[in-house]
Amino acid sequence: MRMADQMQGEVFKDSIQTLNLRSLYTLGNMQFVIPEPITAGNVGIIKSPEPTAAKSYGIKATVTSGNDSQKIEMLGGKGIVSDYVDVEVNGVNLYIKYGSIMRELPFSITLEDFIADKHPGTEKAYAAFESKVLVNDDNGSTSERIYMNNVLDKEGYRFFQAGFDPDELGTHLSVNYDFWG
Fold first, then answer.
1. Could you count the other beta carbons within 10 Å of the beta carbon of residue 143?
2. Could you tell me which of 8, 120, 145, 168 has the fewest CB atoms within 10 Å of its CB?
């Protein structure tokens, strides 16, 4: 149950689901809430199982159930699709990951043009940037523009202009798919 608006949903066995902050979860006779995002911790190094060009970050966490705790390490981050960490604590099996989630969209988006406007007389000081995209679905194609304060909403997905490639030939879109957007 989401506390903000009392909306209720279901947690399904053997499925991957996002857990939301400030929501009451009831699993069997156990209830829990994740009240706030983590705001404090220790800095350390987590070794990657294999060398990679991706700039992933590591998280060290302690998972607690009852009186039992177990420390885990996860690699991931924005734009990184990482593997799940399988942990059992006090008879509770958890599958936890850190990073982005890969999803199949019910439509496709094609970048038509990326436009980066720079402040006069500068090489790297960007005044604005936008993506001109083509949204393709069963009904055909539509041209859309995504830029600061102009998001693209399509079938519950919300696309934000998040950044771009250093060569200014590609775009980075942040995608959300949830009640809050």
1. 9
2. 120
